[in-house]
Every structure is written in structure tokens, then in C-alpha cells.
Amino acid sequence: MFSVKKLCQVLFALGIVCFFQTMPVHAENLDQSVKDMYEQPESSKAENAVKDDSTTEEKAVSSSGVGLSFSDFFRMIFAMLFVVALLYIVLRFISKKSKTYQQANFIENLGGTNLGNNRSVQIVKVGERVLLVGVGENIQLLTEIEDEEERRQLLEAYNQKYEQMMQPTDFVMKLKKKWTKSAVSGESFSSELKNQLEEMRQSRKQLMDKLDQKGRDDK
């Protein structure tokens, strides 16, 4: 089971790597020289500063909109389904191989309990016989389970426990719910951030309009 868990972790990490994208880097060119900036009036400097902030926020809004587009969301869902399907196929293959290997063995340990001091009681299936043995300093046969109904119940309980242990359905469903929840949370955060930046852009624009109006009034 340790190797199966390691394999699941590797496949899950591979699916996450498919989502990573490089962040865009923007460099803004300034057309004004140092002399022009020095000779500008104070009101023009404040107006340019507000314009720069507004431009930066508009770019941030557009960047946030591009950060989680429909194609990105579709690609994320597709990668999630691919990883889930791959996990399901691999776990089913391991389950069949393990079951075939168990059936090929003439001796199977059906379970047991620890009694302390390196002593335990084990139920062992040897061929068609089910034996109850004691394990300590030596191995001793305690009894043989000959009742057909009791043997059938023990074997059914063992097979059911083994199938549940190797069944990937629960793992896949938990992974799907967790992944869907993360995608919805990311989309909500992106929308909220976009709304906040839009409000800031509107307030900056209003302030810029007021400065323009004040400059015309002064003239």
C-alpha cells in the first residue's frame, strides 16, 4: 500500500504541474524626459501621477481577467479528469494483479491479533483448509476450522476487506470534490479582485476628472 500511495502522490503532482503558467512581465515605456518632468507644473505632475495609477490599475484588471480565462478553466477540468482516470486505471490494474497473486499462492494470511510479548494468533488458509495457529517462540497449530459456514464467512469477510482496501472509488471521489472546490474558490477570488480593482479605477478616474476641471478653471 505504501507504493500505491507514492504512485498516487506522483500522479497528483503531475496533474498540478500542468496548471502552472509563467506570469507575464510588463515594462512601461516613459516618453517624457527628465527636463520635461522638471519643467511641469505641480498640478500637471499630480495629474500625471493619477493617470499612471489609473493605467496601472487598468492593466492589473486586464491581467486578472486573463489570469483565469475560460480556456484555463477548461484546461484545468480536462487535466483533473485525466489524472482521475489515470489513477483509477492504475489502481484497478494493481488490484487485479494483487488479487491474482493472492489466488496463485497456496498459503494466505487471513488476519490475526497480537497478544503481546511477540505472541499472536493468526488465521491461515492453506489450500482449501483454514487453520488457526499460534505464533510465539515457535508456531503451533491450535485448531482447524472445519465448519463450512464459518469458513465461508471468514473468506467472505477477508475478500470484502481486501476489495475495500484496493477500491479506488472513494479516493477518486474525494480528490474530485477537493479539486472542484479549489477551482471554484480560485474563480471567486479572481472575480472579487477584479471588482475591487474596477472600483479603484473608477475612483481614480473621478479624481483625474476633478483635477482636469480644476486646471481648466485656473486657466
From TrEMBL:
It is found in: Cell membrane; Bacterial flagellum basal body. Pfam families: FliO (PF04347). Residues 184-194 have a biased composition (Polar residues). The keyword Signal applies. It comes from the Bacteria. Keywords: Bacterial flagellum, Cell membrane, Cell projection, Cilium, Flagellum, Membrane, Signal, Transmembrane, Transmembrane helix. Residues 195-219 have a biased composition (Basic and acidic residues). The chain crosses the membrane at residues 73-94. GO terms for cellular component: bacterial-type flagellum basal body; plasma membrane. GO terms for biological process: bacterial-type flagellum organization. InterPro entries: Flagellar_biosynth_FliO. Residues 1-27 form the signal peptide. Residues 184-219 are annotated as: Disordered. It comes from Peribacillus asahii. This is Flagellar protein.
